[in-house]
Design a protein that fits this description.
Blueprint (H helix, E strand, L loop, with lengths): L2 H23 L36 E7 L9 E2 L3 E2 H18 L3 E5 L9 H10 L4 E6 L12 E5 L7 H11 L3 E2 L2 E2 L5 H10 L2 H18 L11 E3 L11 E5 L6 H7 L2 H21 L6 H8 L3 E4 L6 H7 L4 H8 L11 E4 L3
Parallel strand pairs: 1-4, 1-5, 5-10, 6-9
Antiparallel strand pairs: 2-3, 6-10, 7-8, 11-12
Helix pairs in contact: 2-8, 6-8
Amino acid sequence: MSIRTHILLLVLAPLVLVALLVVFAQRIPVPELGRGYVLRVELPEVDAPSALPEIAGREGLSLVVIDPGHGGEDPGALGPGRLREKDVVLAIARELHDHFEREPGFSPTLVRSGDYYVSLRGRRDLARKRQADLFVSIHADAFTRKEANGASVYALSTRGATSTTARYLAEKENAADLIGGVRLADKDEMLAEVLADLSMTSTLDASLNMGASVLGEMDSVARLHKRQVEQAAFAVLKSPDIPSILVETGFISNPSEARKLATASYRRQMAAAIFRGLRRWWRDHPPPGTLLAWQKENGVGRQYTIARGDTLSGIAQRFNVSVADLKSYNGLRGDRIMVGKTLKIPAS
């Protein structure tokens, strides 16, 4: 047998083997000599524009960690009629969770879903473990003076508190890890906290802007204690890579605000306002690789919640669309719009 024949057999043998395997797998009889067969492989059609982004295990969703403050042996602040902060904030957190559950592009999770204690570090660790995109801690605190009132939003401060109230509240919340005078968190955490402070710059900027959006929505529901996001060294907010805010829904030590916080209707309004603020900011600044980022890039599913002072022309200019298209897309006949309503934004 010649060298050429050897080479020819070496080349043809694998091809013949593959052909026989395909024929056997399809249970097709071996064709007779001289007959021609065509092997056709049909692949499912893929509509490229509708292919959504996907992150391993997350399916492109923005993960929201909602933290109801206190819990278990830590009741938080106490109001008139034995109203407990831990119960009020859990109810608001559950409402907020339901809002995000219904909103496409988000996946919410609660730090605690019942009445049990979670350490401040444990709350942060859970957010890191779940690879959260944003973290919001819900509270309804008290102050030394009963006349103190108003809702607030806080972000972390690595330098110092922006007000006496902010410093007082941060010290009070941080003391939640002192049960019976013993600190439950890891005592070796100091070095990690120093390193975390150094990497907070960009995350803190996002937290402040996200908090401002929430504060703007809360203004339609409650009186604000301060009209800007305040800062203090809240231990629960010290996640260097997760935009994090702490929302004070009111002062439970104030009799008037305590009466409101005790009602389910007011808690629903508060949760809806927090949701609108977070959703608005997050749709404008979605994490890369998420469904929201894909929608923004392709002009799909964009929405805008109307705030005080908004006009149709201003909203149209912001999203680079015409007023006529904006009205037509939302079925509007006139130029009148209502605060709190959501507009669908057409592709520009």
